[in-house]
Write a structure and sequence with these properties.
Helices cover 36% and strands 18% of the residues. The protein has a 7-stranded mixed beta sheet with strand order 5-4-3-2-1-14-15, with helices on one face. A 6-stranded mixed beta sheet has the order 6-7-8-9-12-13. A 5-stranded parallel beta sheet has the order 18-17-16-19-20. α1 runs parallel beside α2, α6 crosses α7 and α14 crosses α16. The termini are far apart. The relative contact order is 0.09.
């Protein structure tokens, strides 16, 4: 038997697009001699559909698409994920399911049992868990088909005495197939391989795992579909961040023509770079946008975002707006212009001095006797926000936010100023990682000017300003933030690691008190195990500091 794995990029709710892509790959697999082609979890509607699932018409359109796909399954079978209705009165209205289609008919329906309800996942909101499990009989072999978490959460879910594979293995299957929607994080690829390999070894069966690829707003899927032998050795791994279709021949419980491979280690920063480019590209293409605008300051954050945008969209589709204040250094303007020249993107120079002075003038009576402080700094940042949004409105550009994760974490940014935008490109990238990204972008030639990388970071909103005037040094700050945000460690635990107690408590207080700002920022491309946004839900008025 020949099985094709189709690692594809879907578009949530775009049934015509998804259906045609699935049909095209059924035909391609058939032309290459495949007996069965396997698509990802919820492939028909795209993942995660979220509250679209509450519309009955949406679910009906999934079924209509499945019937169109079934018509193409002549002399080839397919496995494809979709939501299906729960016809029993009890429980949720839907199952997260997969159809096994053969000769134009749905022959089996496999339903997901272990519904993830953590981080970016919220499947218990919509789906009823499965309680019955049957292997699929095809070409004289039995296939144990599971959906994502059903194989991921091996012996680790307290809600279940056993997981689906413990039930399916009693039916003596010949191989396992797992269809998934497994989001990217720079720590996830190694973990995924370990978990899947453990399953192959535990059940002594070959395993074919297909993941989807592409970005859905803030969530990025990296692909990386895998094939294992029954000893848990990796036989093949598909590319990351790219669509691919590959065919594997199965004889009994052996995948023929493949020997165990050694997976190359891909540095985290290279994965982050590629993920962000895909995230930008898909956010624009799937939203119907083509052109981006951003404020370019001459600093490292906006330089990295500009570089990523140019690579994702093409420099001809990127507008960089330089908005020097009366405190901006000549070198910052030159650094920004050098970057524009290196990439060939469009640019405008719109100074904010006159606008900021006008605000100072009209506010002078109300502010009489008050010293210059953060208020005037924020006015300058908001002037810049008005300008880039005006460019967005006038020319149809989509504004890219350039705030990094360190700034987002501690609230070092101005609402309705530098925190505005449609998508946060590096909001899940710590400042120390931004420097690494700049180095990676410059690995072949200097594209981001060296001065943007080596000079002390500054918002340049007052004379001689540096980030370190308001924040701890980023090397120290980011380590504390990582322990608190990604590792979910308490202040007590972080202090026990050797960090200064006063500094830890100060940092955690800044993180918690900045929650109201993060509620008003754009969605952030997720590249870490714990990003700000839907995967980290904190109360605004909470007082937990430990």
């Amino acid at each position: 038997m020949k099985i094709a794995l189709a690692q594809l990029n879907y578009h949530i709710g775009n049934f015509e697009f998804n259906t045609q892509k699935i049909i095209d790959n059924i035909r391609l697999a058939k032309d290459q001699g495949a007996d069965l082609v396997v698509f990802a979890e919820l492939a028909i509607c795209g993942y995660p559909p979220r509250d679209f699932l509450e519309f009955e018409e949406f679910v009906d359109l999934c079924e209509d698409a499945a019937q169109k796909i079934a018509e193409q399954c002549q002399d080839i079978a397919c496995i494809v994920g979709l939501p299906v209705k729960n016809t029993v009165l009890a429980g949720k209205d839907l199952y997260n399911a997969a159809y096994f289609i053969e000769n134009g008919e749905v022959k089996s329906i496999v339903k997901k049992a272990l519904l993830p309800n953590y981080d970016v996942f919220d499947e218990y909101r919509y789906f009823e868990p499965a309680t019955q499990f049957e292997c699929i009989a095809f070409k004289g072999q039995k296939i144990a088909l599971t959906i994502c978490e059903d194989l991921w959460n091996i012996n680790n879910n307290p809600l279940y005495v056993s997981n689906p594979m413990d039930e399916l293995i009693r039916q003596q299957p010949d191989l396992m197939i797992n269809i998934a929607a497994s989001p990217f994080s720079y720590l996830h690829d190694e973990e995924r391989v370990v978990v899947l390999a453990d399953n192959a070894r535990k059940y002594q069966l070959p395993l074919l795992y297909v993941n989807q690829v592409g970005a859905q707003t803030e969530i990025i899927f990296d692909g990386g579909s895998l094939v294992f032998d029954k000893s848990g050795n990796v036989l093949d791994e598909m590319p990351y961040f790219k669509e691919e279709l590959r065919i594997y021949e199965i004889a009994g419980n052996t995948i023929t023509g493949y020997a165990p491979i050694s997976r190359p280690h891909v540095p985290d920063i290279e994965q982050i770079h590629d993920a962000l480019i895909l995230g930008i590209k898909d956010y624009f293409s799937k939203s119907g946008f083509t052109k981006a605008v951003l404020g370019l300051s001459g600093g490292i954050d906006s330089a990295v975002v500009c570089a990523l945008a140019c690579r994702a969209l093409g420099p001809e589709n990127v507008m960089a707006v330089l908005m020097p204040s009366k405190y901006s250094s000549d070198h910052s303007i030159k650094d920004a212009l050098d970057l524009v020249e290196n990439f060939g993107c469009k640019h405008q120079i719109i100074a904010i001095k006159e606008v900021a002075d006008a605000f100072d003038h009209i506010m002078a009576p109300a502010f009489s006797g008050q010293p210059f402080n953060l208020t005037e700094e924020n006015i300058q940042a908001r002037c810049r926000g008005v300008i880039v949004m005006a460019m967005s409105n006038k020319f149809g550009y989509i504004l890219l936010n350039t705030s990094n994760k360190s700034e987002c974490a501690v609230g070092y940014g101005t609402l309705y100023g530098d925190m505005c935008g449609a998508i946060g490109v590096i909001g899940d990238v710590y400042k120390t990682q931004v420097y690494q990204l700049a180095g990676y972008i410059n690995k072949d030639q200097e594209i981001i000017p060296l001065n943007s990388i080596v000079k002390p970071p500054s918002a340049e909103l007052r004379p001689g300003q540096k980030d370190s005037d308001s924040l701890p040094e980023y090397d120290e700050l980011d380590k504390i933030l990582f322990q608190y945000i990604e590792q979910k460690q308490s202040s007590t635990a972080i202090i026990a690691m050797g960090f200064d107690e006063a500094l830890v408590r100060r940092v955690i207080k800044m993180v918690n008190t900045a929650e109201f700002k993060r509620y008003q920022t754009p969605p952030i491309l997720r590249v870490s195990p714990k990003a700000f946004g839907m995967g980290r839900r904190m109360p605004i008025v909470g007082k937990y500091l430990s």
